[in-house]
Amino acid sequence: MASSAVPNGGSDSSSLIVSFGEMLIDFVPTVSGVSLAEAPGFLKAPGGAPANVAIAVARLGGKAAFVGKLGDDEFGHMLAGILKENGVIGDGINFDKGARTALAFVTLKADGDREFMFYRNPSADMLLQPEELNLELIRSAKVFHYGSISLIVEPCRSAHLKAMQEAKDAGALLSYDPNLRLPLWPSAEEAREQILSIWDKAEIIKVSDVELEFLTGSDKIDDASALSLWHDNLKLLLVTLGEKGCRYYTKGFHGSVEAFHVKAVDTTGAGDSFVGALLTKIVDDQSVLEDEARLREVLKFANACGAITTTKKGAIPALPAEADALSLINSSSQ
C-alpha cells in the first residue's frame, strides 16, 4: 500500500482511526497504596480503554473518532466534552436517557498497579443498540479498534459485532485489545470464550502478559505460548510486558523491543497509549507491518508513549504528545 503524503495521520480524511466501546469515570483514591475503604477521598478520572485510545491518537496528531454510548447525565456530557476538547470526533456518541454513565472505583496499589470495583447495572455503554450506530462514520475508518467489554451483554454485543463487520466490509484494518476486566464477566470461562469468539477477525491484536496467561491457560510467557494465539488473518500480534517492553509476531518475523525505564506512579492507560501510538504510526502506511526495522522503530515509539503515561495519575492527563515521546527516546539513546 502506498504511503500517504500526510505524515502520521494529520487531517487526511482517509486516515481515520475509529475506536469503539466504553467510556466511563474512574474514581481514583487521592492516596496510593490504600484499600477503597481506607481512601480519604477520590479524584474523577475519565477513562475507558477505547476512549483512551482515541484520545491517545488525537494527542499524537492522528485523526480519531469514538463510537459508544454515555448516560444523558452530567458525567456523560462531561465525558463527551473531554473527547471534543481533545480533538476526537464525537459523531458516533449516543446518550441514553434511562441509564447512567458507568463508574469504576480504582484502588492504586503502592507499585502503581490497580484493582477495580465497577458500578454498571446496567450502565449506558451496555445499552448501545445496532440501529443506533453511525454507520457512515464506521465505514469511513481506515482502522477500527475495539476491546472485549462491549461483548459482555446485549444489546451492546450485537452493536459491536455489527460495527466490526461494517468496518471490515468497508476495508478497515481491525485492531483488538481484549483489555480483560474479569470482575465485569459472569465467569472466567465466559470471559475466555467470548474474548476468543471474535479472535480470528482481527488483523492486529495486542495482549498483556497477564491476558496471555489467562487466554492460553499457561503460566509461560514465551514465543510458543504467544504463537498458540496466532491465526491466519493476523498481521501483527503484540504481547506487552510492562517494564520489560513488548514482543511482536508477524507472518515473517518476530522479536522484542525493550521498555524505557521511568518512575511509574499509575499504570492506568499505558496499554491504551501504546496502542494509540502504534495505530497512529501505521494508519497511513500498513507496509510497516512487513518491514521489521521500521516496525521496531514504531514499537519503540509506542513503548515510549506507554512509559510516559505511567508517570502521572490518571490515563488521559498522562497521554503524551509526539514531542514528549521523541524527547524520552532521544534522552535514553544518549
TrEMBL record:
The protein's GO terms of the molecular function aspect are: ATP binding; fructokinase activity
Pfam families tied to this protein: PfkB (PF00294)
| Key words, A-Z | ATP-binding, Carbohydrate metabolism, Kinase, Nucleotide-binding, Transferase
Q: Name one GO biological process term.
A: fructose metabolic process
Instruction: Choose one Gene Ontology CC annotation of this protein and give it.
Output: cytosol
Which reaction(s) does the protein catalyse, per the Swiss-Prot or TrEMBL entry?
Answer: D-fructose + ATP = D-fructose 6-phosphate + ADP + H(+)
Class in the EC hierarchy, top level? transferase
Boundaries of each Carbohydrate kinase PfkB domain copy?
A: 16-321
Gene3D superfamilies according to UniProt: 3.40.1190.20
The UniProt record lists the EC number as: 2.7.1.4
Role noted for this protein: May play an important role in maintaining the flux of carbon towards starch formation.
Identify its protein family. Answer: Belongs to the carbohydrate kinase PfkB family.
Q: What is this protein called?
A: fructokinase
Taxonomic source organism:
Linum trigynum
